[in-house]
């Protein structure tokens, strides 16, 4: 390690000793050192060591040798800025997005896609081992089966332990999002809309986002232009004045139907008919124009009142064969292509033959429930948000599925009640929020003893914690498949198969 520290030892001249010196750390603020990057945090920051002292280095990749400047030191670790790539990783690439450094929406564009997929798999393995104290099958014992191009260990093994599959990625990992939510602001040039500059609430104008569907970009751009022409004011967070807060655009990938939601700080939209005529004339794919009123001083995008200004109340989309109605406020997965991959895995792990009763806990608008219902005798879904259950019921009807029942409530309250009513499940699927499953739900699963549990997770650390509980209660984690729902970001989704032992 090369250092160019000024001064040494805890006391430097007559100046008061720095906190680093007092703590006897090997580096101090503004020191420049050359370090090896040995890992990456779940936030995508490189991790290196200076004489055993951990430094987090945003932008640095595992395997790289970098010169960094120390920005901040704490007792156990510090933060440093990447100054120079002494030796770059073979996974390093130039981020394709011109605003990547300013935006913060993506964190991994400087890493090859194959590298991202391999890192996401390793992140899952690390969590299973460290937090879940679970044994992961390490070596490939099959006859040379590998996942072409991504360097991930893909093989089968007869050994005891969990098989963690290679991350299922996209063949074209760009332009995958079906929903764009753009904050609107104002500069000297007029109305702008794009993203909040990293670490601030300053809105920077943006013409294109490489992970958005191209038509979403075009619609946002035209709506901003129409707004400028009509003299629409932009909302100002500090003063609470101005009308337009956000433009939200949704597209059904399968149907190409589009919806625009204008989120406004007040009911009245001046020159409304001109707005609608201009949108209809310039953007024929738009079948629904809605207004959502949000007059609160908050970061939350939507307010309580939504109304249709023109056209339909919903757009439609398909995931596989299942049709969904999407309203201005309804939650819908943002990457429909990978959603189909994730749900396909869920159905595979559920091992359905058509005779099973399935419970789908944390069911949202019933997307997984309806997917499973194509292969099951009966599906029960439970979700805490009332509006989501209304959507779920409407979607079941839309698809003519009469063997699916939904209930509003907390999974940890409703499922024990179902158990007392005599409902038995062959398979229980859980897809909880980031904090994982409620302990009472895990307890109920252990009491209900379904043959199989499928755990869909957006957070590998709470997943590992919950798998430990299920393992201790008589289940065996057989296989984990990470699915890349959000390429170029640090998020990783997993589908996990468990069987009763
Ligand atoms: C990760 S989402 C899964 C949604 C759905 N399965 C899907 O694929 O679209 C988690 C869902 O759990 C719901 N939720 C949060 N806490 C809950 C609880 N205690 N009981 C039931 N649902 C809950 C949230 O409202 C959210 O819809």
Automatic annotation (TrEMBL):
Pfam family, one: tRNA_U5-meth_tr
Keyword Repeat: no
Basic residues: compositionally biased ranges: 1-14
InterPro entries: MeTrfase_TrmA_AS, MeTrfase_TrmA_CS, NA-bd_OB-fold, SAM-dependent_MTases_sf, TRAM_dom, U5_MeTrfase_fam
Region Disordered: start-end pairs: 1-21
Domain of life: Bacteria
GO terms (BP aspect): rRNA base methylation
Coiled coil: none
Residues covered by the TRAM domain: 24-84
List of residues binding S-adenosyl-L-methionine: 333, 362, 383, 431
SUPFAM superfamilies, A to Z: Nucleic acid-binding proteins, S-adenosyl-L-methionine-dependent methyltransferases
Record's keyword terms, sorted: 4Fe-4S, Iron, Iron-sulfur, Metal-binding, Methyltransferase, S-adenosyl-L-methionine, Transferase
Gene Ontology molecular-function annotations: 4 iron, 4 sulfur cluster binding; rRNA (uridine-C5-)-methyltransferase activity
Signal peptide coordinates: none
Active site: 458, 458 (nucleophile)
Family membership: Belongs to the class I-like SAM-binding methyltransferase superfamily. RNA M5U methyltransferase family.
Classification via NCBIfam families: rumA (TIGR00479)
Protein name as catalogued: RNA methyltransferase
């Amino acid at each position: 390690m090369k250092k160019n520290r000024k001064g040494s030892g805890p006391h430097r001249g007559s100046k008061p000793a720095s906190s680093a010196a007092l703590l006897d750390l090997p580096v101090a603020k503004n020191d420049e050192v050359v370090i090896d990057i040995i890992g990456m945090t779940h936030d995508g920051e490189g991790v290196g060591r200076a004489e055993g002292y951990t430094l987090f280095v945003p932008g640095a990749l595992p395997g790289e040798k970098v010169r960094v400047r120390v920005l901040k030191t704490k007792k156990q670790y510090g933060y440093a800025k990447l100054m120079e790539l002494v030796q770059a990783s073979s996974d390093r690439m130039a981020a394709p997005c011109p605003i990547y450094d300013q935006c913060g929406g993506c964190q991994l564009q400087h890493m090859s896609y194959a590298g991202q997929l391999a890192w996401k798999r390793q992140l899952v393995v690390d969590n299973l081992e460290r937090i879940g104290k679970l044994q992961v099958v390490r070596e490939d014992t099959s006859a040379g089966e590998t996942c072409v191009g991504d360097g991930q260990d893909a093989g089968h093994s007869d050994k005891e332990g969990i098989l963690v599959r290679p991350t299922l990625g996209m063949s074209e990992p760009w332009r995958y999002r079906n929903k764009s939510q753009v904050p609107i602001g104002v500069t000297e040039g007029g109305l702008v809309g794009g993203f909040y500059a990293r670490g601030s609430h300053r809105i920077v104008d943006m013409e294109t986002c490489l992970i958005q569907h191209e038509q979403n970009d075009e619609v946002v751009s035209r709506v901003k232009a129409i707004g400028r022409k009509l003299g629409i004011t932009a909302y100002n967070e500090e003063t609470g004045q101005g009308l337009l807060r956000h433009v939200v655009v949704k597209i059904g990938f399968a149907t190409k139907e589009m919806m625009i939601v204008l989120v406004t700080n007040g009911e009245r939209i001046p020159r409304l008919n001109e707005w609608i005529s201009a949108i209809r004339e310039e953007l024929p794919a738009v079948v629904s124009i809605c207004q959502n009123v949000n007059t609160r001083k908050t970061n939350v995008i939507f307010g309580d009142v939504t109304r249709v200004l023109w056209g339909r109340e919903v757009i439609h989309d398909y995931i596989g064969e299942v049709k969904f109605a999407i309203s201005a406020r309804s939650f819908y997965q943002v990457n429909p292509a990978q959603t189909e991959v994730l749900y396909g895995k869920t159905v595979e792990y559920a091992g359905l033959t058509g005779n099973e009763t399935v419970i789908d806990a944390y069911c949202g608008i019933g997307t997984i429930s309806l997917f499973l219902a194509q292969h099951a005798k009966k599906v029960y879904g439970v979700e805490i948000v009332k509006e989501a259950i209304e959507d779920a019921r409407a979607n079941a009807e839309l698809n003519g599925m009469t063997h699916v029942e939904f209930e509003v409530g907390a999974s940890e309250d409703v499922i024990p009640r179902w158990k007392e009513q005599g409902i038995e499940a062959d398979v229980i699927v859980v897809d909880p929020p980031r904090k994982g499953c409620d302990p009472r739900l895990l307890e109920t699963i252990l009491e209900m003893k379904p043959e199989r549990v499928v755990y869909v997770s957006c957070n590998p650390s709470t997943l590992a914690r919950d798998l430990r509980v299920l393992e201790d209660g008589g289940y065996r984690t057989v296989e984990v498949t990470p699915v890349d729902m959000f390429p170029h970001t640090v998020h990783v989704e997993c589908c996990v198969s468990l069987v009763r032992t």
